[in-house]
Specification:
globular; TriTu; 102 residues
């Protein structure tokens, strides 16, 4: 699961850059761990976000506002066999770009 997410991150990073989101700090933990993961940080003009996906199918997303240091978003997901990351992360990217929640 976490390796599929890594592939998705790599395919999306340049499209996200066109939206004003940079992709940095891609971290993949060792496969020797019980529950390896991939995490990635995203930066916009107003926020920083992190997405983490574990081999077990768990996923956490978080967005923090630069100026206020307030956490604008935290969500936990239990992913199915073939997750649609575009759909799942739509709200995450909206908050990351705008700096506001609905």
């Amino acid at each position: 699961m976490y390796r599929d997410f890594l592939k998705w991150v790599e395919t999306k990073r340049y499209g996200l850059k066109k939206l004003g989101i940079t992709t940095e700090n891609i971290n993949v933990t060792e496969e020797s761990l019980l529950n390896p993961s991939t995490s990635v940080d995203h930066f916009s003009q107003v926020c920083i976000g992190r997405v983490s996906v574990w081999e077990t199918g768990e996923m956490d997303v978080e967005v923090l506002h630069f100026e206020t240091e307030k956490r604008l978003l935290f969500e936990h997901f239990e992913l199915g066999a073939e997750p649609d990351y575009d759909e799942i992360l739509r709200g995450y990217f909206q908050v990351l770009i705008s700096g506001v929640t609905d």
